[in-house]
Amino acid sequence: xxxxxxxxxxxxxxxxxxxxxxxxxxxxxxxxxxxxxxxxxxxxxxxxxxxxxxxxxxxxxxxxxxxxxxxxxxxxxxxxxxxxxxxxxxxxxxxxxxxxxxxxxxxxxxxxxxxxxxxxxxxxxxxxxxxxxxxxxxxxxxxxxxxxxxxxxxxxxxxxxxxxxxxxxxxxxxxxxxxxxxxxxxxxxxxxxxxxxxxxxxxxxxxxxxxxxxxxxxxxxxxxxxxxxxxxxxxxxxxxxxxxxxxxxxxxxxxxxxxxxxxxxxxxxxxxxxxxxxxxxxxxxxxxxxxxxxxxxxxxx
Length: 301
What we know:
Blueprint lengths: L6 H20 L13 H13 L11 H20 L25 H8 L6 H16 L3 H6 L5 E3 L5 E6 L6 E5 L2 H16 L11 H14 L9 H12 L6 H8 L4 H7 L4 H26 L5
Antiparallel strand pairs: 1-2, 2-3
Helix pairs in contact: 1-3, 2-3, 5-7, 5-8, 5-9, 10-11
């Protein structure tokens, strides 16, 4: 498992392991347990432990989906144990993971424009703002923006600049045409990169700091949404691509998804696009009605 999982994913598994150990120590008064001793009751009790676990300030630590993610990781470990023939029956067979569905947060065209038109003398805020906007126009995740190097930018067959890279999360190859707004941001920091002999395209700080600075930026813009760096990726899929008529199959390729269903979770067609499509439909209805009326008129010679 260690050889195929990314560092961030491994950290999540280590966190799940900590919760399992706390459950064993605090509820079962055990330091360890045999795999064959795990049963449906164990899973249910562990779920309840996660749902009621509080920190030192007596605050609940996990949402429903947080609980489900920990159970999902434990289930994967037990599936592996079955493949290795360490156990014969998975206690999760009768247990159903229940995730709450949430709409993916994204920025509207107006909100994105507000951020673009906000400028800072403060270097850290200006850099994070520019990197966030770059992500909005390329669909790259935080880690992919941070690791983007100059040698990953090249001319395409159309003569325009493209990004050729692999997604850190899935290792999927993605080819993204660089839109004019994203190209402006690359040019803005190009001189800095060359002067510092730095092959990285953009100067991006840690994920934690970037999200902290983003909260300042969003507040300054008068936007009342919980915005993290990942919102840029959803904005690219929804506001930049789908809302402007780009087919979902193309969006899926640009995001580096292996399945179309994954893209459908990220993106949605907004009301303006629905209104535009219905407007076009009404025009076609009207045109068709006029054609039928014209054809039904008698012709005199």
